[in-house]
Design brief:
- This protein is mainly alpha-helical.
- Helix content is about 80%, strand content about 5%.
- It has seven helices and two strands, in the order H-E-H-H-H-E-H-H-H.
- A two-stranded parallel ribbon has the order 1-2.
- The longest helix has about 50 residues.
- It is globular.
- About 25% of the residues are buried.
- The model has no long low-confidence stretch (mean pLDDT about 85).
């Protein structure tokens, strides 16, 4: 238990400066948006803001640096790679829960003090979501983006720069192929008809499976990343 607590503390300290900087910038933008909304209200204009998407992107970017920042340190402390991945998984869960809670509270405060329209992915499935529904979706999406960022980190860590950018090139081909063969309409229809619970369950299962694959890829990883 002490090892887990210590690992979570070290992982948080590794990102403490970036996390504080990001949230300070985001809250500054929110405060500025509230000021702008007050001005627009006087002229009968509406104003919109997006909070969740920047948090998803920030989380993914931070996860994409995790192995380079922490793996060698934890291995020197005597942790095996499976223990490291277990602790990272717990850290991701805590990150997702706290991030989702902050997003939800911030959105509640904004809607309480202003008429700003908040853009959120859950609006694709529910026009009047509850706080718990919003937090559940944010938690799962944050977990997914963290895992996706870690996957990218593993690819660069194991295959080097050439392998990493080749992997990104393959990912870029996916939306291109989707547009060429007009698969986006079927995908949009599927997402429009799917329930929130089904979406959350599917994303959660996919994230767990993806994390399991990452864990297997890390088992024999070198202490030093590939060039």
């Amino acid at each position: 238990m002490n090892t887990v607590k210590g690992s979570l503390y070290v992982l948080f300290q590794s990102y403490k400066k970036q996390i504080i900087t990001f949230w300070c910038i985001l809250f500054s933008i929110v405060l500025f948006s509230l000021f702008i909304d007050t001005f627009f209200e006087l002229h009968n204009y509406s104003f919109s803001i997006m909070i969740s998407i920047p948090v998803y992107i920030f989380s993914s970017v931070m996860a994409a640096k995790l192995l380079n920042k922490t793996l060698s340190y934890f291995l020197r402390l005597g942790l095996c790679r499976l223990q490291f991945m277990f602790n990272v998984g717990l850290f991701f869960i805590c990150w997702s829960l706290v991030g989702a809670f902050i997003i939800g509270c911030t959105q509640k405060i904004i809607t309480f003090v202003s008429n700003i329209f908040i853009i959120h992915p859950i609006l694709f499935f529910n026009n009047s979501p509850s706080f718990l529904q919003t937090m559940a979706l944010d938690t799962v999406l944050l977990l997914f983006f963290l895992t996706a960022g870690l996957l990218l980190n593993v690819v660069f860590y194991r295959l080097g720069t050439v392998g990493g950018y080749s992997f990104i090139g393959l990912l870029v081909l996916i939306p291109i192929v989707t547009i060429i063969f007009k698969l986006y309409s079927s995908l949009f229809d599927l997402l429009s008809n799917i329930s929130t619970f089904t979406l959350l369950s599917s994303l959660l299962i996919f994230s767990v499976l993806l994390y399991s694959i990452i864990t297997m890829a890390i088992r024999n990883a070198s202490v030093n990343p590939a060039a």
